[in-house]
Amino acid sequence: MRIGKLAEATGATTATLRYYEDEGLLPPAERSPAGYRDYAADTIARVGFIRRGQAAGFSLAQIRQILDIRDSGHAPCTHVRDLLDIRLTDLDEQISALVALRETIARLRQGAESVDPESCSADDVCRYL
Fold first, then answer.
1. Which fold has domain 1-74?
2. φ, ψ for residue 20 (rounded to 5)?
């Protein structure tokens, strides 16, 4: 299937598909006599997997590792589970950091209620911070 049809079938742009191929996420496409890329039908599922991996927050390098495991004839599910565990830990840390940041900003905003903006000295720039 030509790259335009693959793009249509997967919702990816042709530029994205070329990038995936350049980065080794997709096997090199066969070429027609006119030089057009000709992808196998199973490439649709592979692009779908790449996009699901990205939606889960995996890097393209991590997705490539998973695909390499599959391409070597092994099930990558244990590796994926481990990556999901790492991703969950990372998300928990990010959420904690965001909650702390929100508390800091809320405290600063509350303090801004009682300060007259005109009372800020040039050295302070702004007393709210």
1. Multidrug-efflux Transporter Regulator; Chain: A; Domain 2 (1.10.1660)
2. -55, -40
- Per domain, the residue ranges of the chain are 1-74, 75-115+124-129
Per-residue pLDDT of the chain (129 residues; tens, 9 = 90+): 999 999 999 999 999 999 999 999 999 999 989 999 999 999 999 999 999 999 999 999 999 999 999 999 999 999 999 999 999 999 999 999 999 999 999 999 998 887 777 777 777 788 778
Query: pTM for the full model?
Result: 0.81
Q: How far apart are CA 36 and CA 29, in angstroms?
A: 9
